Amino acid sequence: MLPYGKQSIDQSDIDEVIRVLRSDYLTTGPEIELLEQAFCQATGARHAVACANGTAALHLIAMAMNLQPGDEVVVPSISFVATANGARYCGADVVFADVDPETSLMTPATLEAALKRVTPGKLKAIFAVHMGGHPADMPALKAIADREGVFMVEDACHALGTTYTTADGREHRIGDGAHSDFAALSLHPVKTITCGEGGIVFTPHDHFAHDLKIKRSHGLSRDADEWTNGELAFEEGTGAANPWYYELGEVGYNYRLTDFQAAMARSQLKRLPHFAARRRRLVALYHQKLDGLSNVVKLVAPRDGTDPVLHLMVALIDFKAIGKTRKEVMMALRQRGVGTQVHYIPIHRQPYYARRAVGLDLPGADAYYAKCLSLPLYPDMTDADVDVVVGALREIAG
Fold it and tell me: Which helix (H) or strand (E) holds 178?
C-alpha cells in the first residue's frame, strides 16, 4: 500500500534520539535552542520558537497578538481546522475567505471580498495558508494587511522549503518574515520533516519571540528583570535574586517540545535539501505522466515565481466526467494498493463554524473540495511508485 504521506526516518535520526535519551536533559534542555538556531539558518528567520505541534504554534500566535472575544480574523476556508481554531481558543471570531478553485489559495480578491463581511473596527489579523506547500501571494496579502493596520500570519505548516520570488527579483524562503508578522510550521509525520509531533513559530519581532517563549511554558518568567513581587523575588538585605523564584505574570500553556524530539527534528532538517529535491522530482513525474489525463485529472500548478516543496500531491478530478464518485475512485485506488485522502472539507462547512456563519456561500472553496484528491507523495517513494499511481488512475478513469 502506498499511503498519501509517510515519514522518512534513517539511522542518523535514531542515533540522535538515543544520544539525547542518554543525556541529562529530556525536556527544557539545550537541544531546543539548537533546533531554533538551525531553523533560523534554514529559513532566514530572525526568530524561531519551538513548541509542541502546529496547532500549538497557531494558538501561541493568537495569544501573542492578544486576540480577545469580539476581535475578528480572516481565514481561508480551505485548510485544516486548526487554522481557525487557534483564533477561537482566544475567543476571536473567524471570517472565512473564499479561495481560488484551481489552487485552493486565498487571493487578494477573495480577501477583499471577505473584508466586506468584517465588522468595522474589529479586524485584528489575516491568516494566509500555503495549502499543500503552494505559497499564497504574500506581498499582495501583506499590503492589504498593512493597509488595514492588522497582523499578517502565515499558516506555513505545509510549506517548509518553499520559496517565492518578488517583483524586485529577490527570492524569499517561507518563514523568513519578509511579508508577515508570524508563520507557523508543523513537524507532524506526513510533513516535510518530522519529530513525531512538533511545531515552530517564526517571527521577525524580538518582543514577540520573547513573549512566545514565555507563553509556551505556562506563562512563567525566570528573568529577574521582569519580576514584580520584590518581597518574594529578592533576598531581604542583599537584594539578590532568590534562585528558586519564578513568577506568573499571565497564564500560558505547557506547549514545550522535548529535547529528544528537537534532536530528531534537527537531524531531519539536515536532510531538507534531499527531501525537497525528492519531492520536486516526484511532482515533476506526476505532471509528466498525468499529462494525457488532463481532460479529467488536473494537478494544482505552481504560481509563476514560486518554487514549492509540496507536502500534498493534490489532483483535481472531474468525477462526473469519469462516471464515478470520489468514494468509488478512492476505494478502487485502494484495491490497487494506492492510498489517498481529501484535503480538506471547507472549514465553513464544519457544523461548529456553519452555525456561526449561517448561509455563507464560498463557491471557490466548494468547487475545489468537490474535485480534490491527494495522491501519494513522500521522499521514500520511487519513480516506479508514481507509475503505479498513474496507471491505477488511468485504469479507473477509463
Answer: none
Handedness of CA 85, 218, 64, 213 (dihedral sign): negative
Q: pLDDT value at position 294?
A: 87
Distance from C-alpha of 105 to C-alpha of 358, rounded to nearest angstrom:
23
Give the pLDDT score at 398. Answer: 83
DSSP string spanning 291-302? GGGTTTEEEPPP
Spans of the chain below 50 pLDDT: none
260 and 354 both lie in a single domain? no
State the DSSP code for 225: G
- DSSP alpha helix (H) spans, the chain: 11-21, 30-43, 54-64, 82-89, 108-115, 138-148, 206-215, 230-233, 259-270, 272-289, 319-322, 326-335, 351-354, 363-371, 383-397
Domain count, the chain: 2
The whole domain housing 343 covers: 273-397
The reported pLDDT for the residue numbered 41 is 98
Distance CA(18)–CA(97), nearest Å, equals: 45
Let me know if 215 is a catalytic residue: no
Catalytic: which of 142, 191, 213, 215?
A: 191
**Residue 350 sits in a domain of what CATH number?**
3.90.1150.10
43 and 154 belong to one structural domain: yes
